[in-house]
Amino acid sequence: MNNPSIKNEQHKNKYNQFVNENPDELIRKEDLVFYNLDSYFMATKDNPFSNRAKYYSYPALLKKNIFQANENTFNNFRKYLKEIYKSKLLEEIFYLTPEFNDFKYPLLDDEILDEMIDNTIFLPYDQEALHGYTQKQFAKIFISTNMFKDNLSKKDISRVVVDISLLLNTLIHEQLKHYIKGLIYYNSFRFREKKRLDSDFASYESDQFFIDNLQIIFSEKKKYYS
């Protein structure tokens, strides 16, 4: 007789062998928010698709997301992202975009690529409209990674695939459109250019104070505006 629970348990054992981690041994009491513990905790503590962050205090909750569920998963995810950004397709799209015509595609450089991924923070929180945000002055990318608000058992595999694809779409949008444009925009001041890119930067006039000080930093002058 078909018994899905047995098969699921077998897959779970294979998964744990692959990641070489025992979730029970990774939980430290000082990382938990005890008043949030409920009857669902044991069923969700090692399930990366569930909202596990509510059980943990800061900063332990930050890695309770689908991409950083364990070290092997995150390493494979980084490798996957690098394959995407080093593909000929994205490189060609970059050069076909008019506003990038004067610049070299930067993501073939491993140092720039690793830095961009390291500057991406996956937040295990729900969202209504804002799935991702790039803080351009400090070059930090924030991605909301909560996939489901209710029980995963009610979802089929197609919903999982769709939600993960939406997360990836948001991630590539923030990294390629906003982060890379910010990188080019601010580095252009080193060559005494004022390159405007089609991103949601502040207007040139209202951002003049910040722009002028950036130019001074990379010039021989040491006087700062007050």
Name the strands of the widest sheet in spatial order. 1-3-2
Percent in strands: 5-15%
> What fraction, in percent, of the residue positions are helical?
40-55%
Q: Note the main sheet.
A: 3 strands, mixed
Overall average residue pLDDT: 76
Count the E strands: 3
End-to-end distance: 77 Å
Instruction: Write down the overall geometry.
Output: elongated
Please tell me how large the radius of gyration is. 22 Å
| Strand-pairing-aware structural class | mainly alpha
Enumerate how many helices there are, as a single number: 8
Low-confidence stretches: none
What is the H-and-E element order? HHHHHHEEEHH
Task: Give the count of structural domains.
Answer: 1
Structural account:
The protein is mainly alpha-helical and 226 residues long. It has one domain. The protein is 43% helix and 6% strand. The protein is built from eight helices and three strands. The chain has a three-stranded mixed sheet. Strand 2 and strand 3 form a beta hairpin.
